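Category: protein sequence paired with discrete backbone structure
Discipline: computational structural biology
Format: plain text, a pair of labelled lines
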Amino acid sequence: MHLRAVLRPLTFLLAVGTMTLLCTMASAVELGIRYTDSKLGFSIRPPRYWTVEREPMEGVSVVFVGPRHEGFVGTLNIVIQPEKIEVTPAYVSILARQLEAGHAREKARKRLLRAKAAQPDVEITDYRVKRTRIAKVAGEDAAFLEAAYSGTYNGRKRKTRNLQLVVPGPSRHYILTYTAIGEQYERYLPEVMASMATFTVVATALGPSALPASGKRKAAVALLVGLAAGIAVLVMARRRAGRRVA
């Protein structure tokens, strides 16, 4: 695909410090129909033909599931926290350090093993945040964190990567997590980034009690929920049942 050839050298377009270029290119990417959850206050156009599953596990609002490849699937999930935040360089730096901390990785592993879709022999090692960037999304300063790690799934070690986006809202914040293995990550990254560029916060009269029951968490732990959910769905050997996104 010609568009991918253009985007691949710009794997992390955020290096330019703005989403303007991405939004322009996003208009050339075929995305799915807009998915809106007025109850939880967000809207997004997922990658085309990715299926959707609502509240697939505790604390996760929705998961978009990509095509299966070698028994794995790429995923894009959304976790919502009932807390207003301000994204600053210091905030992003703290998130990155906490995500890399050994105790944080262990929390992610334990949370992963409790997830409904997880396998008992999944292990995450060598987790490293490779890049961070602040850019405008939905009219607010949002944080991007791109990470790489080794995942052992059913005894097979695979390089795995994820891209997380933290978007502030009026009374809560939204965490989008894209997870995929090896070259699959690069393959779908243009579509996922174009999808993230369409994310918007919509008005809702409902308070934090409307969120999936999971309790208030520290920022890094909330990101770990997205990380764990992404891996849990990624290791499935079959497509989860879901509605087709046209």
Remarks:
- Residues 182-197 form the longest helix (16 residues).
- Residues 40 and 210 are 7 Å apart (CA to CA).
- Helices lie at 2-7, 20-26, 89-100, 102-114, 182-197, 219-234.
